[in-house]
Amino acid sequence: MENNVIVRLENISVSFDGEEVLNDFSLDIHDREFVTLLGPSGCGKTTTLRIIAGFLYPDSGRVLFDGRNISSLPPHKREVNTVFQRYALFPHLNVFDNVAFGLRVKKLPEAEVKQTVSEMIEMVGLKGFENRRVTSMSGGQQQRVAIARALVNSPRVLLLDEPLGALDLKLRKEMQTELKRIQQRTNITFIYVTHDQEEALTMSDTIVVMQGGKIQQIGSPQDIYNEPKNAFVANFIGESNILNGVMHDDYFVEFAGAKFTCVDKGFRQDQEVQVVVRPEDIKLVAPDAGMLNGIVKSTVFKGVHYEMLVEQAGYTWKVHSTASEQPGAQVGMVIGPDEIHIMVKPEDKAGD
Amino acid sequence: MIKSRFAAVPYGVWMAIFIIIPLALVCWYAFTDASGAFTIDNLADIGRYTNVFTRSIWLAAIATVICLVLAFPIAFLISRMSGAKQTFMLMLIMLPMWMNFLLRTYSWMSLLENNGLINRLFGLIGLGPFEMINTQGAVVLGMVYNYLPFMIMPLYSVMTKIDRSVIEAAQDLGASPARVLSKVIIPLSVPGISTGITMVFVPAISTFIISRMLGGGGNLLIGDLIEMQFLGNAYNPHLGSALALVLMVVVLLCMSIAGTLDNDDVEDMLL
Amino acid sequence: MMNKGLKRASVVYCAIIALFLYIPIGVLIFFSFNQSKSRNLFTGFTLNWYKELFQNEMVLKSLGVTLLVAAVAAVFATVIGTMASVGIFSMKRWQKKVIMNVTYIPIINPEIVMGVSMLLLFSVMKTLFGHIGVDFSMGIVTLIIAHITFNIPYVILSVNPKLRQLDRSLYEAAMDLGCSPVKAFFKVIVPEIMPGIVTGFLMSLTYSIDDFVISYFTSGTSQTLSIVIYSMTRRKVSPEINALSTIIFVVVLTVLLTMNIVDIRKETRLRRQLQREVRR
Fold it and tell me: Which ipTM value was assigned to this complex?
C-alpha cells in the first residue's frame, strides 16, 4: 500500500459542554484506502468525520489535507464530500437536480453537468429515475442518490456517516458490496463510520477501532479480528472468551487452570496477561480427551452453528460448533496454539 | 446557522419599540396624572366602574360557555368525517370569519330590530314584538356568533389527533358512550378547550363594537370605556391606560385559570 | 360506531350550526338587491346600491388604502418575521423562551390594549418629533407600522414549525457540496420553509385587510375600509353596506374556492404520478 497520507489528524481535542469527545486524537489516512471508523455510539467516530468535513472545528489540534493545514477551512472549500446518515437529500429537487447540485454551485456549463450527472446516475444504477421526486423513493434508492450526489463532485475523499443504518438487513448486505465496488472503481479514499463490526470487516482496507475518544487499534480486518490488542477490541469485534492468564515463558501460557503452548513471545517471565479465545476456535471432544473438562450448560441453535455455554473451573466458555451436545453433558475442550491470542493486561481496570 | 442568531435582531428591535415601549407607556400613563406626577387616582377611579367590569366578565363568560357547548359536538363530528367532507365543513365554518367583523355584527342589527325580520316572523304567528336589540342577550348573541369559529377550530385540531382506535379501545373495554366522552374524549380535548376558551373570552371581554352595535347605550363594556377615554368625548388617556392595565391583568388571570399559558401547542392551534 | 338515530341527529345539528352562521349573511346579501332603503321589507329588485357603492369616493379610496397598507405590511412582516424565525431557531433555550413570550403578546393581548398602547406611543413620538421640528402625525405610516407589528408574530408562528421539521443535515449537505453558508441558506433552507413563509404572508394579508380595532386607534386621518364600514354602520341605515358585504362575500368565497381547487388539483396530480410510478 502506498504510503501517501491524504488526511492527517494531529492531536485533535474536542469537547461539547465540558464533556471531552476526542482527546489528543491523531490519525493518518492513506490515499485510496477504504478506512472504517468503528466503535460504539459516543466513541467520537462521527465527531472525527465532522471534523474532516469541516462541520466542526476542533478545540485544539490540526487537520492536514494532502499536507496542507485546513483546520479553519469552511466545509464548502474542502475537497471532501459527505454521504449523510439520513441521506439529507433536498426534498424540493428531483433526482437529477439533487445530483447536479454541487456541479451547478461550481457554475459548470450545463452541458457538462448533464453529461457528468447522467454518467453518475447510471453508475449507481438509477438510470431512468432522473425526474423522480426523491421523497417518493425507497431507502436504498435514496441511498444511491446520496452517493451519486457526493461522488459527482469527484472529491479526493468521500466521508460516509453510517450510510446503511436506515436500511433493512438484506439491502444492507447488497449495498456493502456495491459500495466496495464503487470505491474500487472510482479509486477515491472512503472514510466510513459505523458501529456495525460486520460491515467494517466486509468492506474495509483498514479499520480504526475507537472508544471513549481514543483509538483502540488500527489494522486490517484480519489483524483486528485475529490479533485484538485489548479486551475492548476483542469483545467489540466478534465474540470471545477473555480470561486472565500468566505468561510463564515464550510460547508458554497458563490460564483456566491449565498450561498451553501458544505462538506469542516477548513477555516478561510470569507476566500477567489476558487471553482471548474465539468461540469457534474451541474444539469439543470426549471428556478427558481434551485439555480442559467442562459441563454443557445450554445449547442454542444459531443457524450456521450451535452456541454452547460450557462451565469449566468457574468460568463459562462460549463455544461454537456445528455438532451439538446436550445440556448437562461432560465435554472436553481442545484449543490449538494458533487460536490463543495473548494481550497485555491493562494497568487500570478500563479494559473490562 | 451558527451565527444566524443575528437575523433576529431587526425583529428584537422592532418588538422592543412597538410592543414593549407602548405597553410600558400604558403602565406609565396609568400611574400619572395630566401633569406627569405619580398618582394612583386613576386606578382608584376604576372603582366607579365596577358594574361595567362585572358586566363585561359576566357576558363574556356566558358567551364563552355557550360557544363551548355549541362547538364541542360540531368539532367532534367534523373530526370524525372523511377527508373531503372535513374540508368542506371547515370551509363552511371558516367562511363567515373571512367576512368583515363589522358587517357580521351589522347583519344582526337588522335581524334583531324591533321591526326586524325576526319580530316580523313572530308577528306572522301572532307573537311579539319582542324587545331584542339593545339588550344583554343581543350582546351575548353577537359574541357567540362572531367568536364561535374561534372555539371550533382549536377543538377540531386536537380532536383530529384523537385516534379512532383509542375510542374503540375504550368501547372494547366496556365503556358506555357517556363514559367514552367523559373519560377519553374530553380529557384528550383539554388543550383545545383551554385554547378555545381564551380565544373566545379575550376578544369578548374587550370588545366595544358588539356592545355598541347590539347593546345600545345601556350596556357599556370595558372596551367601550377604554375607547371613550382615548377617542371619545370623555378624553382621559390616564384613566384609559389604567383601565387597559386592569383589563390586561383580568385577561392574564383568566388565561392562567384556563391553563392556556402553559400550553405548548398554542402554535399549532392558532394556525 | 354510530347508530342511525345519532347519525341523523348529528346531520341536523351540523345544519343548525350552518344556518346560524349563514342566515345573517344571507339576509345581508338579499337586501342588497332591495329597492327601498328598508333593511327588512323587500320591495323589489335593483342593482342601484352597487352602482352607488362604486361611485362612493370614500369607499373606493379606503379600499386603496386598505390594500396598500396590507401589501406593504405583509411584505415587511414576512421579511422581518422569517429572519426572526431563523434567528430564534439557533438561539439558546432561554433566549428562545424570552423572545417567544414577547411574540405571543400581540396575539394574546386584547386588540384594544394593543391599539391603545400604540396610540400612546405615536402621540408621544409626535411630541418628541415636534421638539426637533419634524411633523409626525398619525396616518398611513403609523397604520403600516401597527399592522407590521401585529403581523410579524403570525409569520413567525407559521415559519417556526417548518424550521423545526427541517433536517439539519440538509444545510450541511449544501455546504458540503460547495455552497457558502449564505448560499446554502437561500438554495436549501428557503425552499424548504417556503410553504411556511407563504402561509405567513397570506395570514398577514388577511389579518391586515380584516383588521378594525388596531387600525381604528392608529390610523389618524387615513381611513381603511373597515373604518369606513364602521362609520357607515354608525350613521343612517344604507343598503350600500349590504352591497359591499355581498361583494366581500363573493370575493372571499372565490378566493377560498380557488385555493381549495388548486390544492385538490395538486393532490390528484401527485396521486396520479404515484400511481404511474407504482405501475412501472
Answer: 0.88
**Considering chain A, what is the average pLDDT of its residues?**
88
A216 at interface of C, judged by CB pairs closer than 8 A: no
Q: How many residues does chain A have?
A: 352
> Mean pLDDT: which of A238-242, A248-252, B67-71, B262-266 is highest?
B67-71
Q: Is residue C40 part of a domain?
A: no
Query: CB atoms < 10 A from the CB of B34, how many?
Result: 9
Q: Domain total for chain C?
A: 1
Q: Which CATH superfamily is domain B50-270 in?
A: MetI-like (1.10.3720.10)
End-to-end Cα, chain A, rounded Å:
34
**DSSP structure string for A244-307:** EEEEEETTEEEETTEEEE-S---PPTTEEEEEEE-GGGEEEESTTTSSEEEEEEEEEE-SSSEE
Q: Which three cell numbers stand for residue C153?
A: 408574530
Q: Which residues contact C48 (CB under 8 A, 6 or more apart)?
A: C35
DSSP for B176-232, written as a single string = -HHHIIIIIIHHHHHHHHHHHHHHHHHHHHH-SHHHHHHS-SS---HHHHHHHHHTS
Question: What three-state secondary structure class fits C137?
Answer: coil
Say what the pLDDT of residue C236 is: 64
Look at residue B84 and tell me whether its pLDDT is greater than 90.
Answer: no
Quick check: is C118 in a domain? yes
Q: In this structure, is residue C161 part of a structural domain?
A: yes
CB contact under 8 A, C152 and B2: no
Q: With an 8 Å Cβ cutoff, are C178 and A102 in contact? A: yes
Looking at residue C63, its amino acid is L
Contact C192 A91 (CB under 8 A): yes
Q: How far apart are CA A246 and CA C33, in angstroms?
A: 107
Name which of B188, B193, B200 is nearest B161 in CA terms. Answer: B188
Q: Please give, rounded to a whole number of angstroms, the shortest distance from the CA of B218 to a CA of chain C.
A: 16
Task: Give how far Cα C106 sits from Cα of B241, C148, C152, Å.
Answer: 17, 11, 9
Interchain pair C83, B270: CB under 8 A: no
* Chain-centre distance for alpha carbon A327: 35
Return the residue of A nearest to C171 by Cα. Answer: A88
Residue B162: Cβ-neighbour burial (10 angstroms; 0-12, 13-18, 19+): middle
Preferred mutation among B78, B103, B250 to probe C, highest tally of C CBs within 10 A: B103
In a domain, C150, yes or no: yes
Greatest Cα pair distance, chain B, in angstroms, is: 76
How far separated are the first and last CA of chain B, in Å rounded? 26
CATH number at residue C166: 1.10.3720.10
Of C179, C181, C277, the CB nearest to A105: C179
Residue of C176, C183, C266 to mutate when probing chain A, most A C-beta within 10 A: C176
Domains and CATH numbers, chain A: 5-231 (3.40.50.300), 239-344 (2.40.50.140)
Query: For residues A87 and C6, what is the distance between their CA atoms, to the nearest angstrom?
Result: 50
By the 10 Å C-beta count (0-12 exposed, 13-18 middle, 19+ buried), A4 is classed as exposed
The dihedrals phi and psi of B208, each to the nearest 5 degrees, come to -125, -5
Per-residue pLDDT of C241-272, as tens digits, reads 889 889 988 998 898 888 877 777 776 776 66
Are B102 and C210 spatial neighbours (Cβ–Cβ below 8 Å)?
no
Every domain of chain B and the residues it spans: 50-270
Q: Best of C101, C112, C204, C212 to disrupt the B interface by mutation (most B CBs within 10 Å)?
A: C112
pLDDT reported for residue B271: 43
Print the domain residue range for C108. 57-238
Cβ-in-10-Å burial (0-12, 13-18, 19+) of A139 comes to middle
Cα-Cα end-to-end distance for chain C? 39
